[in-house]
């Protein structure tokens, strides 16, 4: 992997971790994530380094425009950033 790819992956991982914080800070979002993913809060710590899990977190965030916009506003990032970050993890659908 070249330096640019490493940088992009690092940025994607950081963004996914921020998304986890965002989800866990809102009880409704947390419950929705738990139902959708089957992951319990106790499992989060063990899964933080799993690229599949981080991709799933971003999938969840991207699945609802309102929560995506709120996340981006709170983190002062462009609304396209989570989708760009998602491409760095396994299972991403790439546009050609």
How are the SSEs placed, and which strands pair?
Layout: H1 3-24, H2 27-37, H3 41-47, H4 51-62, H5 65-75, H6 81-86
Helix pairs in contact: 1-4
Kindly state the number of beta strands. Answer: 0
Q: How many domains, in number, for the residues?
A: 1
**Percentage of residues assigned to helices:** over 70%
- Report the end-to-end length measured between terminal Cα atoms: 21 Å
Shape: globular
- Kindly estimate the percentage of residues that lie in beta strands according to DSSP: under 5%
Order of SSEs, N→C? Answer: HHHHHH
How large is the count of helical segments? 6
Structural class estimated from helices and strands: mainly alpha
The pLDDT mean sits at 88
Oligomer type: single chain
Major pleated sheet? none
Radius of gyration: 13 Å
Explain what this protein looks like in three dimensions.
By secondary structure, this protein is mostly helical. Helices cover 72% and strands 0% of the residues. It has one domain. The chain has helices at 3-24, 27-37, 41-47, 51-62, 65-75, 81-86. The longest helix has 22 residues, at 3-24. 20% of the residues are buried.
């Amino acid at each position: 992997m070249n330096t640019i790819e490493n940088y992009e992956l690092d940025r994607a991982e950081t963004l996914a971790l921020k998304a986890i914080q965002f989800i866990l800070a809102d009880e409704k979002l947390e419950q929705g994530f738990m139902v959708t993913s089957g992951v319990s809060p106790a499992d989060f710590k063990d899964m933080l380094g799993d690229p599949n899990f981080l991709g799933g977190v971003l999938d969840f965030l991207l699945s609802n425009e309102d929560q995506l916009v709120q996340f981006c506003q709170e983190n002062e990032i462009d609304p396209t950033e989570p989708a760009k970050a998602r491409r760095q993890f396994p299972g991403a659908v790439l546009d050609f």
